[in-house]
Amino acid sequence: MKENSQHPENPNEAPTNQASSDTNLNYLFFLFKYKWFIILVTLLFSAGGILYSLYLVEAQFKSVVSVVPPKMSDDGGVGSAISAAMRNFGVSSLVGGGEDGYSMMVLLTARSAMDSLIVRYNLPEYYGIESGSLEITRKILNGNLEVEYEKEGNYLVTIWDTDPELAAEMANDYIKIVNNLASEIYKAETIHNLQYLENRIVATDSTIAVYSDSLARFSALNKMFEPETQAESYAKSIADLKAEEAMAEISFNLAQQRYGDESPNTLQQLNLLRELQKKISQIENVPGFAGNFSLNNATSKAMQYYQLYANVEAFTKLKALMMPILEKTRLDAIKSQRYFYVVDSAIPAEKKDRPKRSLIVAGAIIGGLATSVLILLLLAGWKTLRQKTFQFEL
Question: Does a structural domain hold residue 90?
Fold first, then answer.
């Protein structure tokens, strides 16, 4: 006997789908039956949101100060002529926040700057923190402080407070605090660089004195004062290379002190120093530079004279390069420098900025609606479960 082609493959599928559809309808009917409960709960939540936004949440006013870092130092551009030399020596500058300086965002969001603002305005007491906890005060201040970087290159520092006058005053004072913090950091680093440069110049003077004395004694002993042109050319070339080697050594030492042995900047300076040392070694030990002989093995008195002369020239040039850097570093260590310039000062706001009462009320309405529906669905589910349990017991 043939099977009926319309008979379903799974005899339980149709009843299951039908039961599921009936259950959904039951839930919808149940919600419709208790629609006044949903309306009542939603209205209660809405009223609560309105009361909360009107009486329990204080309105806050927003004050914004716009600042920019300087493009150059306050010396009117005088220091730009030696800026390249400063980079070669590893002497950093905080001004401008360039690649070799500090990030300005780090300064504007520094914990020490916020702590100074907290102390200046006694914010634990102002925020009503009975324990006087600095950590709790920081969290509240973090919620009322915002720092943004604009693509145009300026920074926006925003402070919210219930008092518009106080919000503007705090925003303007915060920039002054950050400027003082940046100045302290830069001066500490400048003093460290100054000590290194001063010690290096003292050592350079001692070295020049030793080589000059040796050259004078050699000249008097051998009565040599005008060697041939070939030796003079060698002396000039080797002097330039040794001056570069000395500069590279200074840059490496400063990078090592500032960044550590494994820093890419330190390794780059070390590679440059080794290349210069290798080149000088080849010139002094490999024949061909000054003639068909190596310079270290030359017996010519002229070569010996210019080796001494080259050392005096090298360290004299090194000192000449370091002196303007030393003078600028001394000036930076004592002068007053601003690191943020105010474009637009913060002014008291005329209208409140937060909270948005409309959003609070809308959230309360959605929350009331969701809560009432969830309660009814749970009751409907419990009722259905009780009915099934009763049928099973029968």
Answer: no
In a domain, 230, yes or no: yes
Strands 145-149 and 341-344: unpaired
Tally of residues, the chain: 394
Contact 332, 260 (CB under 8 A): no
Please provide the DSSP assignment of 179-197 as one string.
Answer: HHHHHHHHHHHHHHHHHHH
**What is the domain count for the chain?**
1
- Say how far apart CA 11 and CA 22 lie, in whole Å: 18
| Backbone angles phi and psi of 159, in degrees to 5 | -130, 135
Residue in this structure with the two tokens 């093995």, named with its chain if needed: 297
What are the angstrom distances between the C-alpha of 93 and each of 46, 104, 106, 326, 381? 57, 12, 15, 14, 70
| Residue 262 C-alpha from the chain's centroid | 21
Would 212 be classed as within a structural domain?
yes
The pTM assigned to this predicted structure is: 0.52
Expressed as residue numbers, the domain containing 226 is: 207-333
Condensed to tens digits (0 to 9), the pLDDT of residues 302-348 reads 667 777 788 888 888 888 888 888 887 777 766 666 778 899 999 99
Closest CA relative to residue 42, chosen from 307, 382, 364, 378: 364
- Burial bucket for residue 100 (CB in 10 Å: 0-12, 13-18, 19+): middle
Q: Which of 357, 358, 360, 355 is nearest to 62 (CA)?
A: 355
Spell out where the chain has E strands: 61-68, 145-149, 155-161, 341-344
Tokens of 240: 């330039």
42-101: pLDDT as tens digits: 888 887 777 766 666 677 889 999 999 877 544 443 344 444 444 444 444 444 444 434
Is 204:318 a contact under the CB 8 Å cutoff?
yes
CA distance 329 to 334: 9
Residue 98 lies in a domain: no
